[in-house]
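Most newcomers find our protein records easier to grasp once they have seen one. Each record describes a single protein and holds just a pair of labelled lines. A learned vocabulary of local backbone shapes supplies the integers on the structure line. Nothing more is needed to start thinking about how sequence determines fold. The record below serves as our worked example for the rest of this section.
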Amino acid sequence: MPRTLLICLIFLGACNTAGPGFHGIPATRASAGGSDFLIRQRGSVAEVMRVSPERFPRFASVARRGVLATQQVTGCTVGWVQGDPSMMHMGLACGANPAPRMARRPRAACWVLRGQGSCR
């Protein structure tokens, strides 16, 4: 029983942990349209994590609110959004600098079946 409780606490503690490339960057909490987000910015890319509970969230509506919150926090314009209703990455156009190109993410099956190789 104590072992199961410890495992559950570890998983719950990792729910709002920064993703790859964003470790060590402090998160800024922001709200928009009734949703709460944790936003971490590294250069011209932001990691946006929804931390408020929502029933059946749709990506388009959550992304719109995430864009508003990110623009408030960073002062930059969002050029693109990639992810799901819980975790998004956004390309930022700050000042005269355009947003970077959207990263092409490998599908999960490619990572599992072929290691870290690319799938076509």
Summary: Residues 2-114 form one domain. The mean pLDDT is 82.
